[in-house]
C-alpha cells in the first residue's frame, strides 16, 4: 500500500488536539446576546474576557484561551445559521466594506450554511487572505513598511493603537501565532485536511472581521483619517507564463482519474484536489489555485520526507520548530548540510524545481502563492492563463507518480503534450533568464538605429571633412579587433570577412547564444554576483539606446523646422557621427555579456581569484555604461566626451582580452 494511503493526518498530535478537540472541551451553551448588541454590534469587551494570560509575563495563554472561546465560536456559528443571506447582508455587509472584499465575506457566510468541509476550508483561506490585506491597509494609517508576515502584522503597535491590544490578542488566538490555532498557516501550507477544520472557527473569524470594521469606523471618525486601499497586483506579460497548452474538460476529466490513483495525492486530501479541478471547470480560477497550491506543497513534502528519510517532517511542526515548506523543499541542501534528494526523485529536477521557483519564489516572477495568500490579488479577476499553468503542472506530477498500470492515461493524447512541455521547461524568471531577456530587448532597440530619421548624408559627410572622422574610425577598428579575438567562442560561420562588425554583432547571433540552455538551479553566490553586474550594464546600455533614439528624433524635427541654433546644429551632427561607433560598441558589450553566461558557472567554481579580478573589470565596464548614460542624456549632449570615454573603455576591454582574463578563457 502506498504511503499516501497510510497517512491519515498531517497534523502532529499536539496540533491536532489544539485544532480539533481543545475548543470542544467546554460544553457550556453560550448566549449570543452576551457578545452581540441589539443593533448588531460586537461587544468586544465580552469577547476579550475569554482571552487568558500567563501569570508569569502576562502573555497570552493560548491553550486556556482556545478552550474558553470554544463555546463562543459555537454560539456565533449557530447564530449565523439562523440568519438568511438577506438578513446577514443587511446586518453585517456594511461592516465588511473596510476590507475592500465584501463579496468574499458574504460568500463565506453562504458556505457556512451548508458546512461542506472543503468549501469551509476554502472560505477560511480566502477570508484570512483578504483580512490580512485589509489589516495591512489599516497598518499604513500609522506605519510605513507593512510587515510581510501575518504574525508580525498582528503583533504590531500600529494595529494595537487602532483596535486595542486586547482585540489583537483575540485575533492571534485564531491566526498569526504558532502557539494558537494558526488556522491560516496550517491550511495554506497543506497540513490540514478538510474535515480537520471546525466550521465554527471560520464563523468566528467572519464575526470578528465585522467587529473590526465597527471599531475602525469609530477610529476613523475620531481621527478624521481616510483608509486607503493599496492597489491589487496585476499579472503582466501573461504570454511569458504560457507553458502548458490550454486545458479542456476532457483533460480535466482524465486528471480527476489520475488524482484518485496517484501516489502523489494523500487520500485525506483527495476532496481538495477534486474541488480544485471542479473550480477550474467552473471558471473559478482563483479558487482552483488556492485549493491546489497547498496540495502541491503537501505532495512534494511527502516525497521530500520519504526520500530524505525524515518522515516526522511530514507533520505540522510545533510552535518551537519550522514547517517543512516549499522554500526548504526546493533548497539544494537540508538543514544538516546533506544534499536534498527530492530533485533526484523528480527525475526532471530542473523542470520541476525551475517551474516552482519561477511561479512561486523568484522575485521577478508571478509569486502566485505569496500574492494569493497575502491578499495582493483581486480574486474575482484572477487570470485563467495563470491557473492553467498551475493545474497543468499539477497534472504532470500526478502522471509522474502514478502506477505503471496507469500507462493508458499517462500516454493519452491529451496528457503527452503536457509531459513534453514539462520536460522542456527552462526557467523564465531566474536572474540569468531575465538577463537574457534584457540583452535581447536592448539589442532590438539598438537594431532600430539605422531607421532613425536623419539629415541628408552630404551634411554628415561635410561635418566629417571639417572636423575629421579619424577617431570614430579608430573606435570601429578597435571593436573589429576585439571581435576577432572573440570569434573562437562563437558559433561557426557567424562572421563574414567582408564586414565582421555587422555580421557578428547581429540580433540573430545574440538570439542564438541566448537560446543556449544554462542551468540556473542552485546558482552559486559568485555567479549571481556576476549576473547582478551584467544586468546593470545591460540596463544602462538600454537607457543609452533610448536616449539616443529620443534625441535623434527631437533634433531631426528641429532641423527640419529650422529651429536649431548654429551650435545645436553642430552638436546634432556630432551625435550622428557618434552613432556610427556607439552602435557597434554597445552591441559588442551585449555580446560580451551573453558569452559570459555560457561559462560563468565553471569559472566561479574553478578560478575564484581570476573571478574576483574579472568582477572588478565588469564593474569598470558598468562605470563606463553609467557615464555614457550621463553624456548622452538630453541635458548633457557631450558627444566629444563620449568618444574619449569609449576609447578608454575599448582599450581596457582589449587589454583584458589580450591577457586572457575573460571568463570564456577561464572556463
Automatic annotation (TrEMBL):
Top-level division of the source organism's lineage: Eukaryota
Organism in which the protein naturally occurs: Dasyornis broadbenti
DUF4209 domain mapped to chain residues: 131-211
Protein name in UniProt: EMARD protein
InterPro entries assigned: DUF4209, ERMARD
Signal peptide start and end residues: none
